[in-house]
Design a protein that fits this description.
This protein has a single domain, classed as Decaprenyl diphosphate synthase-like (Undecaprenyl pyrophosphate synthetase), CATH 3.40.1180.10. It is α/β, with parallel strands linked by helices and 218 residues long. Helices cover 44% and strands 14% of the residues. The longest helix has 24 residues, at 55-78. The radius of gyration is 18 Å and the shape is globular. Bound molecules: farnesyl diphosphate (FPP). Farnesyl diphosphate is lined by residues 1-6, 19, 22-23, 26, 43, 45-46, 50, 61, 64-65, 68, 117, 168.
């Protein structure tokens, strides 16, 4: 969800206003995903690298996650979204972890769309954590194959990523779902996240649908 800061700056607003504007586009986009038949949507909300931001911005974001949980989770629940979180939970404030668990419990029976929120998430951390757990479980190295490895990821049920949308024109992966994006198609747009509309989301999915995916074949 890149570009909140620049969106705010271009309006002479504080960065927090950009993050708030970023939250306001969530529900229409999740609804659009449901209408398009997208079964899984993953949103990158806070990376393991984002702790390096000024402490005031980190605190603002943590407060915003809590507010978003309170304001959006009930309506997403009514619309049939199942919410799950990806990332290292132990480093997050206690109240944020509680809100995450409540959201997961409340929505666990829903089936219209799975919405994953990557929070304190890093693709490399996910791979390191998977390796650690495999070693702790005493797996025979020769028994480890791609399927075994995938079963140790944060949410093994997350399917491979079909389409990765990157807003604000950044041409980087930024440590996002490194395992799951192996064959992802990319859609990069200059649009800043708060301006990313359902119409553009539809265009991104249409562009994906028109591509031929060879996955290393011919
Ligand atoms: C990146 O834009 C955005 C973030 C680090 C925060 C995104 C989080 C939200 C929109 C809140 C969503 C909350 C939930 C629970 C889903 P940036 O600040 O890097 O923008 P810039 O690149 O223009 O500076």
């Amino acid at each position: 969800m890149d570009g909140n800061g620049r969106w705010a700056k271009s309006r002479w607003l504080p960065r927090a206003a950009g993050h708030r504007a970023g939250v306001s586009v969530l529900t229409p986009l999740i609804e659009t995903a449901g209408e398009l038949g997208v079964r899984t949507l993953t949103l990158y909300a806070f990376s393991t690298e984002n702790w390096a931001r000024p402490s005031t911005e980190v605190e603002t974001l943590m407060t915003l996650f809590l507010e978003t949980a309170r304001s959006k989770v009930p309506e997403l629940n009514e619309r049939g979204a199942r919410l799950r979180f990806l990332g290292r939970r132990e480093h997050l404030p206690h109240r944020v972890r509680e809100a995450m668990e409540e959201a997961e419990n409340l929505t666990s029976g829903n089936g219209v769309i799975d919405v994953y929120v990557a929070l304190n998430y890093g693709g490399r951390s996910e791979l390191v954590d998977a390796a650690r757990r495999m070693i702790r479980d005493g797996l025979d190295p020769d028994a480890v194959n791609e399927a075994t490895f995938a079963s140790y990821l944060y949410a093994p049920e997350v399917p491979e990523i079909d389409l990765l949308i990157r807003t604000s024109g950044e041409l980087r992966v930024s440590n996002f779902l490194l395992w799951q994006i192996a064959y992802a198609e990319f859609y990069v747009t200059e649009t800043l996240w708060p301006d990313f509309s359902p119409e553009e989301f539809r265009r991104a999915v249409a562009s994906f649908a028109a591509r031929s995916r060879r996955r290393g074949g011919v």
